[in-house]
Amino acid sequence: MKKSKLHLLGTGIALSLMTSTLLHATNGDSLIAVGTKARGMGGTGIAISHGAESTLVNPALITGIEDTEISFGGILFMPDISTNFAGAPSYSSDADTSFTPEVSIAHKLDDNWFIGVGIWGTAGMGTDYSNAPAGANFNMVTNLQLLQFGIPIAYKANGLSLAVTPILQYGNLDIDYGMPTPGGIQKIGAGLAQDFGFGYRLGATYDFSSLGVNGLTVGAVYKSEIDMEYKHQITTATGPFGLALSDHLEQPAEIGVGIAYTMKQHTLAFDYKKVKWSSAKGYGDFGWEDQNVYSLGYEFSQDNWALRAGYNYAKSAVVEGRDPRLNLFNLLGFPATSEQHYTVGGTYGFTDKFSLDLAYVYSPASNKTYDISALGMPSSSISTEHKENSVSFQLTYKF
């Protein structure tokens, strides 16, 4: 890369590290997709190339760039979460707005080899009931943030592309609340805990045009689990409820396949992913179930502009269990219950090299009510309503 390109890379990564903030759950605690184009198409990106932003969706698809491409953007989240239990009114979480940046760069070394680099906010969740009346919703405040840095390396020969992305993940977790006692409200919490973890993503695609079938592409991805340990966080928070859990919270392994077909100006894409929450440390302890994620996307492109739409569905990984204490923590502190996402988006190219991408994602209200009768509270259940709006933007420059 030229010196100017490296300068842009360093600037983008520095900005991302300084401004990464709380995300909110979509598919479990993970985004439906990283990158504005993919988000506008319902999260699809396993078999359709979105340029540099494909680095963390399917790194094999960075082989679709012509030379060097940089994308910089972010996501503005506006979730609306409210919970009531113990016979009290419903209170809304104040964690209702956040911004997360994304930076991706991909570079063509020669006709066969491609390399990239990127840093992304990929997952997170949390609630903030600190301003509710004293004792209401335990004045629970939770905050999980995950940031990933990756360097994809891809190889292309004929219609086949293969890639691997080593990943460094940074995460922090904070859980605080007030426990009612005969002597008043006891503050529970260990302060912010942080950790780093390592993993990888594998990607493969095949373009059937090399066999004379123009416009058809299939893809597959595998994402390894990444174990994180937030010392004293989960043990401190759950100990007063008599739960013997560890401080590990492992981002789960994922496997996915996709297919895309382009005919003239029209592209239709479909992705399927399996997210293994039940076998992930921490999430399995909290009773989370595996998710089957289905994504459908459509794109119409013409000259210097494109329009996109999509739909994403995954049954909530957070389910009602037999232990009322886990039901309480899941809905009050980690209500990752969104199931449906409707998306629209578009691109406008100001020049052949510079373009703007936009996307809007709407997740309608998901209402969950779980049993907590065994806890001896005035109410026998806890109810949470969770809906989301988010707007994504991205600037892309091709060198």
Order of helices and strands: HHEEEEEEEEEEHEEEEHEEE
**Describe the biggest sheet?**
17 strands, antiparallel
Specify the CATH architecture.
Beta Barrel
Count of separate structural domains: 1
**Low-confidence segments, ≥5 residues, pLDDT <50?**
1-21
What is the approximate shape? elongated
If you compute it from the alpha carbons, what radius of gyration comes out, rounded to the nearest whole angstrom? Answer: 22 Å
CATH class: Mainly Beta
CATH superfamily placement: Outer membrane protein transport protein (OMPP1/FadL/TodX)
Mean pLDDT: 90
From the helix content, strand content and strand pairing, which structural class follows?
A: mainly beta
* Residue share in β-strands: over 45%
Structural commentary:
With 399 residues, the chain is mainly beta. It has one domain (3-398): Porin (Beta Barrel), CATH 2.40.160.60. It has helices at residues 3-19, 36-40, 233-238, 324-333; strands spanning 68-85, 91-92, 98-108, 113-128, 141-150, 153-157, 160-181, 184-189, 193-207, 216-223, 254-263, 266-275, 291-302, 305-313, 340-349, 354-371, 381-398. The N and C termini lie close together (10 Å).
